[in-house]
Amino acid sequence: MTEPRAVVEVPHFRQAAPAPSEVAASVPDGLDDNGKTRMLWAGGVSVVVHLPEHGLPEVLHWGRDLGDLSHGDFEQLRQARTRSVSPSALDAPWPLTLVPGEQDGWEGRPGLAAHRAGQAQYPRWTVADSGFETDVDTGTLHLRAEAPGLLLRSELHLDDAGVLRIAHEVVNTGDRPLSLAALEAVMPVDDRAAEVLDFTGRWTRERVPQRGPLAQGSRVRETRRGRTGHDSPFALILGTPGFDATAGELWAVHLAWSGDAVYRHDALPEARTVLGAGPLLRPGEIELAPGESFRTPDAVFVWSDRGLDGLGDRFHRSLRARPSHPREARPVVLNTWEAVYFKHDLDRLETLARTAAGIGVERFVLDDGWFLGRRDDSAGLGDWTVDPEVWPEGLHPIVRTVRSLGMQFGLWFEPEMVNPDSDLAREHPEWLLQPPSTRAWRGQYALDLTNPEAFDHLLGSISALVGEYELDYIKWDQNRDLIEAVHDGRSNVHRHTESVYRLLDRLRERHPMLEIESCASGGARVDLGILDRTDRVWASDTNDPLERLAIQRWTELLLPHELIGSHIGPPTAHTTHRASTLDFRIATALFGSFGIEWDITACTPDELDRLRHAVSCYRRLRGLLHTGTLSHPDTGDDGCTATAVVSDDQSHAVMRIARHATGNRALATALRVPGLDPGRRYRVAPVPELPVPSGLDEIPPPWLSQGGLRLPGSVISEVGLQLPLLAPGEALVLEIMDQDA
């Protein structure tokens, strides 16, 4: 396996170059002549922030690296960005600050909204010299601003990938309670931005792109589901006209948060356009007593001049640099859900485990149905003890079998939920997050994890099972939206989400080797907040490969393949009732964290043999798939998609071409493969473990059956490869290798 690339920590803060007449002078790090400008720089991105004489800082530039700037350059840049006074407007220029508000002259959605006993707060901020500082070692700009009764702390961190994280914290320094209605991070974008892309979706059809022109006004997408949501905006992207996967300049934001959220952009006639995000705060939800504080989740801002793939590359490099990022090879998983559902039987599961081990599976996950009273989804949630009727010896027999076969063992939980038909709900109805009159969802309600007793009960119950069975892995599910989520009569989504995070953190502290998968009715909790404390996400509850192609394509805008669970399901998908070939299901699942969710004990010898080859292919290629640079070359065909991964040293690449619908052409297009070294010679051929699809051509391109092609990288990238005309539901996986490697 190729080791994940090392990330060298370097300062992200560029010093200003001295003016020519001051070459010998001592130069303060990144300051203009008045010590009021800071510049963060990393990964080809610059962020320039200026602190005016009064009020909060404003961003002069966020985008392409500006190079070394002198003291004089900073001052000239500030003047270049100082706004004029437009007709019928305020009498003097006003700033667009990091936390814009009416007190600044801003008439869009405020960055901060709060009141005390109904009295609106329009703070006049003061920033002392020591309140605007940069940590050179971490590339973080720290802001500390004060106003009567308020303290604001802000952090802007630019990492090696050029990804900017912004978080704000407000402290109530007054003597009366403060009711917080909004606290959001915003950044200005270039005037060239003219189109908007975000996402929507539903269960089993997550992350559906929706795109349109940038219209004037303050526009907001809110999520009020108590979790990220199947219809989450996911990322808000503003771009230059016609941007696509490989071209265009883009400005994007993602909120690293698993609760209610706000995504917003403001394009006002008399101001620079901004985009931003923050937690959605329901009325009365965040009440700060004197001395209390509230900190936002990180708003993650990314700029790219290489289209959507450039955005994705920055996200991926940023995530892979995390100390907590999975470093071990992502194992082949067999999950039992679509194999047995609730029908747990030791003999059947042992047969399934032996069959899985025989084809190379490395992790066996026992899904829903193992705990007390759980024969269907109407009972048992909350009673996290092994059902003695089904498992009289506990789970030890199946765990022993799985481990004797050389596989890891994992277990499914849904800790945040409870069925009314459970011992827990009967004994502790006061632990529910909703009033009893709230509408049920899948026959279940949420537990209030801000209740210390409920929190401790869950931590103890789960931790005991992890310890008893030495679990390697947990699939952590959450299967309903939160409606009427209250604690002591007050809205409680935000604090509840923080408690979910704390529960996960405490569990990982007790069991540092435990891996956790985030699942929420499939893909309803896919965000960087949950991924700060889990090891992969379940992208969707559908294993239909046609649906998965689109779902995974857009999920991988944010996440690299190693974080996206992707499984081979049964021949007929239980979510869509659509039948698909095994080869197509394999090719789709290969580009992710690979697994199987199917009763493979019923497979024919030929099917098992093909699965064995698929597992072998994944295990051979996962070092590349999980460390390389991902791209989506344009096929020139709306019915056909391409996904490519190229190794960092450009010696190895793998590409999948998949057809989901018929196209307009009878002759398939020639496909160019980006990211190769033009001076190297490569061998291009289908991966040996998987069959070449038959396609629709009377005579397919001869190179597919003649040992492949040997060409310079320049030819593959600029001229391209003649593809076969695939039928809908077919996929071809190619491997490209340096001939001398």
UniProtKB/TrEMBL annotation:
PROSITE patterns: ALPHA_GALACTOSIDASE
Keyword check for RNA-binding: no
Record-annotated Glycosyl hydrolase family 36 C-terminal domain positions: 641-726
EC number in record: 3.2.1.22
Domain of life: Bacteria
GO BP: carbohydrate catabolic process
Keyword terms, alphabetized: Glycosidase, Hydrolase
Pfam families to which the protein is assigned, alphabetical: Glyco_hydro_36C, Glyco_hydro_36N, Melibiase
GO molecular function: alpha-galactosidase activity
Catalyses which reaction(s): Hydrolysis of terminal, non-reducing alpha-D-galactose residues in alpha-D-galactosides, including galactose oligosaccharides, galactomannans and galactolipids
Stretches assigned to the Glycosyl hydrolase family 36 N-terminal domain: 55-289
Protein name, as recorded: alpha-galactosidase
Species per Swiss-Prot/TrEMBL record: Glycomyces luteolus
